[in-house]
Amino acid sequence: QQTDDYNFIRTHQLKEIKAKSVNSQEFINSIKKLKTDVILVGSWSEKFSLQTINTPKIACINTHPSLLPKYRGPNPYLQVILNNEQKTGVTFHLMEVNYDTGAILHQAETEILKTDTGESLKYRCCDLARNEIINLLNNLPQKLKEQKSQNEQESTYQHQISLAESILDFEKETSLEIDKRIRALTPWLKCHIPYKNDFFTFESYKIYQKKSKKRPSSIVKKTNNSLFIVCKDGYVIEFCAIKIKRPFS
Q: CA–CA distance from 248 to each of 28, 162, 178, 200 (Å)?
């Protein structure tokens, strides 16, 4: 099956390196044979060895989708939404053996919208990175001279979110917090509504601006396809197209 990456390589007649790992001798030998100046990394989960990092003649540069040193680690798209950040961005930094710790070469910011999902924010950061790569490479000698070490006192690291965090808690979370959690986890995890011994997923939801006097987590209305549930702040959320599904099955 032909992927977008494969089609891009073929369309632009780019050199393709086939290796099991970026740390394999096969990959390192290929980089040396090509006399590679720069390795530019994006969305690559494998940890680079020091030997691989030191192979290109100029630099090995990573693209990280946050404003480092904040939000090191996996999937910062959802973490910045969960933590009510107003802005995020992309950081191009020199690679080290540890994840996301190298000196910063270039950064660019983007606003986090109140309607953003993890998915929409990811797409916007990817578009931002595509544009900023041109700036980075065109001015690389100067960027290398002006590189800035990360301030470890300002650093934060966010672990990958767990399945347990996809379960909504209407007694502890307000309607805005529920909305934020659903948006942040989209599309990586479906949120689950606990009800008695079952869990429900849903396709869409709506927050009503009239408060209910019933206690949080109460179901004030049910239809064949929807549940209306009271949140901690008294506002009701309608969850539509519900289906029974256990998060850990």
A: 40, 11, 20, 12
